[in-house]
Amino acid sequence: MIRYALKCEHDHEFEAWFSNSAAFDEQKARALIECPHCGIAQVEKAIMAPMVRTSEAVESRQSDMRKALAEAMHRVRTHVEQNFDYVGDSFAREARDMHEGLSPERPIYGEASRDEVRELIDDGIPVAPLPIPASESPKPKTLN
Asked: Can you tell which superkingdom this protein's organism belongs to (predicted)?
């Protein structure tokens, strides 16, 4: 895909994506490209600076993405802690009891061993890992 900066004869600027430069030429020749502002089909490519990625820009973007991911994980964990029942080491038993109708359904979170989690998943009981803050020990918590 290629993105072109375009301009109509009324100096309205806009961008459009094409599968390749030949696709742009073909669509332009058939008057299929229209200005989104005025609808006119007389458009030309505008001057556009190429997008150059430096290693510094890539590192900055990766850092921003890591921060955004950490913030999202923190929001998920905070939501769970404020809205789910903490059942501690009883998580696997509680999740199984709810699944089998032995206790009422409710959102829970707590600790479970890897073997307990595998058994729950094998039995079709939906569980997911809960994001752990960096400041907490790595004992896994699970939610249902």
From this structure: Bacteria
